[in-house]
Description:
By secondary structure, the protein is an alpha/beta fold.
Amino acid sequence: MNIKEMDSTYIAHTYGRFPVQLVRGKGSLAWDEAGKEYIDLGSGIAVNGFGIADDQWLQAVTEQLAQLPHASNLYYTEPCAVLARMLCERTGMKRVFFGNSGAEANECLIKAARKYAAEKHGPDCYTIVTLKNSFHGRTLTTLSATGQDHYHELYQPLTPGFAHIAPGDMAALKALAKTTKIAAVLIECVQGEGGVVPLDKAFVDELAAFCRENDVLLAVDEVQTGNGRSGQLYAYMCFGLEPDIVSTAKGLGGGLPIGACLLGEKVKDVFAPGDHGSTFGGNPAACAGGVSILSRTDDALLAGVRERSQYIFDQLTGAEGVESVSGLGLMIGIKPTKPAREVVAKCIENGVLCLTAKDRVRLLPALNIPMDQLQKAVAVLKEACKG
Ligand SMILES: *Cc1c(COP(=O)(O)O)cnc(C)c1O
């Protein structure tokens, strides 16, 4: 039995995998079992922010693995404290809760918002408003937060307490506020799984003003947009927001599972010992990797992200077979005239790995992808969009 057969025999069929078996990688290059080389424009879905097995990240993680790979949250360890301090100093947020995934970061965000709102405004203040076409995770509660019906259908009944409005529809939010106490509004600044769609700046401004005026928490899901991907450290910074709660994950760990919920001034003391927890949360090896990644996500790196972004937009906007290009920083969606999945298949054939999101080809390259590799990969993608 080869690996592909073994996988489809023994792994639950939750993923529609591309027909590629990856065995190793370095930076923005990856190789399959036959030794074929690929340029990676997906980064394990925005996880390998500095590429695969980045040397400095690898050193930080392996040193920590040899020293103390896991403790428990009953003891103090250095990497999580250092990473939490870095996150707070870089964002102005006040405290951090660590979990292991984006969904777990959002679970914490939702719990924090509910607890804060119930204590401050009463037990009937629990509704969290999210946007249609959003994506917040796969646990039952983050699925309930997700504003896409097709994710809901199979798993009724969902967690109550969520309402969804269309991006841009302030009237719907104001109408809802007349009948329902709203605890928080949760947004992605760029809807990733929803097709790489940035929110409109004017709408985001109005939303932030509404939250301020009505003492509603403003929460931002930076799981995919965060950690340099947008061209700023967090995408909310591109929109000039001051959120009360931020969740992040994917790229923060540089390749190991991590999630973080950043609590701002209002909610910093919402949790007391025993209120929330996670066995692996704040894992020393994952956090040591995070410290390595975050300490190098500096102005020079971010300038490089914006430069690479501009290159991709310039190359693909108006190219043959390309209807439109959307996104922010190195989170880019390309709407081809033919089905996105066909374009991705053609790219794989020609040694380039990219993703899809809805009807778009989605690019999430490493933030430091070498320019020559990016140029080669974009040329392959352009060719794949033609005809
Ligand atoms: C990927 C993603 C999640 C879920 O993260 P997991 O690590 O898969 O649980 C949540 N929100 C957004 C915006 C994401 O892109």
